Amino acid sequence: MEYMIGVDLGTTSTKAVLFDDQNQVVAQANYGYPLYRDEPDMAEEDLDEIFVAFSNALGSVIRQANLADGNKITAVSFSSAMHSLIAFDKDWKPLTRVITWADTRAVEFADDLKKSGLGQEIYSKTGTPIHPMAPLSKLLWLKNAHPDIFQKAAHYLGIKEYLFHRLFGANKMDISIASGTGLFNIFNLEWDSQALELTGLKPEQLPTPVSPYEYETKMVAEYAAVLGIPADTPFVYGAGDGPLSNLGVDAVKPGVAAITVGTSGAIRVVSDKPVIDPKGRTFTYALDKDHWVVGGPVNNGGDVFRWARDNLFDAEKSTAALLGRDAYDLMTEIASRIPAGSNGLLFHPYLGGERAPIWDANARGSFFGLNHSHTRANMLRAVLEGITFNIYMVSLALEEVVGNLESIQATGGFAHSPLWRQMFADIFEQPVTVPESIESGALAAVIVAQKALGKIDDLYEISKYIGKSATYQPNPENYEAYRELAPIFIRLSRQLQTEYDNIANYQRKHNIK
What is the pTM of this model? Predict the structure, then answer.
C-alpha cells in the first residue's frame, strides 16, 4: 500500500493525517503545545515544543503505516498557520520564540503605518492588511522595541520554514506563506522592495520564495531515523492553512465561500487573480500562482467558546468529565434551549483584539443588552451568535470586493456542532454544507503533493474525495430575529471602537493580560 501524509501545523497543535491511495483517512495523531502570553499582547510558541509535537504526530502515523510490511510513504505535505516570525542569528541560533499571528505587541507601529498612507500603498502590492498579525508589523516592532535582536538577526523564518530548515537545511518559503507576510509582492511574486526598505531588511535575510509544489528529499539522517521514514521521502512545501481550507472543502468556484472556525476563523473565496480592496479590509493570499484566496480572518473563534467554557461553565465542565461527556457538547445542548437572538443579548467577541472586519488590535469584548431575565445560558448562546455575527460582518465586506456569495462550505471545529452550523445558515441566510472529510487542510495538502509528484493534473481532482455529510438550510423563524439584531451588532461595533484604545491602554498600564 502507498500512503501520503498531510501535516496541519496549527496555532496550538500539530496534526498528522495518514491517507491511503484513495485519499481515505487511515490514521491520525494530534499533539498540542502551549501559547505563551507572559505579558499583555504576547502570543508566542516554543520552537522545541513545536518540533517535539510535530515529530510525535508524524512519527505516530508513520508507525501506523507499517512500513516494515512493505508499505510506503510516497510524500509528506504541509498546511501551515500563517504570519509567524522567528529571528535567527548568522549561525542559525534562534533569537526569539515563534511570534504568532495572535501576537499584537506591534499595534503601535501598525497603527502609525496605517495612518501614514504608506500602509495602503504597501497593502495594494502585498494584499496583506496592515495589522500587528503580519510579519511586516512585527519587524517594525522588533526594530524599534528590541534593536538588540534586530541588529543580530541574519535570517527570518516562519513555523513551517523552521521545520524544513531543521530537517533539510533548506531556506525556502512557499509563495502562499510569503503572501501573508506583508513583505511579498503578489503581482510579481518577489519580496517587495518598498516593504523591505521600510523594515530595513535585505532580501538575503528572507527565505527564497518557491512554488507550493516544490519538495525536499534529503533529510538529515538523524531525523529520518527518529521518524522511521526513508530520508529520500519527498516533503512537499504545501501552502497556508487558509488557502488550503478552501481547496479542502471544494470552495473554489465563484460565489462559493469557505468558512473556517477553529481557534480563530475566516471566510474566503477563490479568485483566478489577486484582488485588492480599496478600503483595505480583505486579504489576498496565494494558493498557487493561478489561484488566489480573497477573504477576511477573525482572531476570535473557538478560543472565545473555550473562554466561555472555562469562565462561565466551569462546574458543567467538571460534570461533563464525570459523565464521560464532551464539555462542548454539553454547552451547545444548553445553548440550544435558548431562542435565536438570545432574548436580545448581544456579544462582541473581541477578547483578543480583532482583524477583519474592523482591523483593530485594541478591540475588546463586551455583552450588550443584559437585563434581569438573562442567564448564563443566554450569555453562552450570545457568545456563539457573536462569533457568527462578526464573521457575517466580514462577509458583507467580502461581497463588496468579489460579488455575491451563493453558498457556504464549512470546516473547522465548529463544523462538528449542528447548532453552530444552523446558526451560520440562519444568520447568513445561505445554505451551509459540511463535507464528509473534516480533515480539509490535511487532505488539501495531500492533493498538492499529488500534483507536485505528477499523480494528478490539477487541484480540482479533490472534488472526487469530499462528498457531503449534510446541508443546513436557513430557518425562517430564526433569521427573522437575526435580521433585526445584525444591524444593531454592526452599529455597536463601530460606536464602541471610539473607546477601544482607551480601555486597551488602561489594561496595558495595569498589566492586565
Answer: 0.90
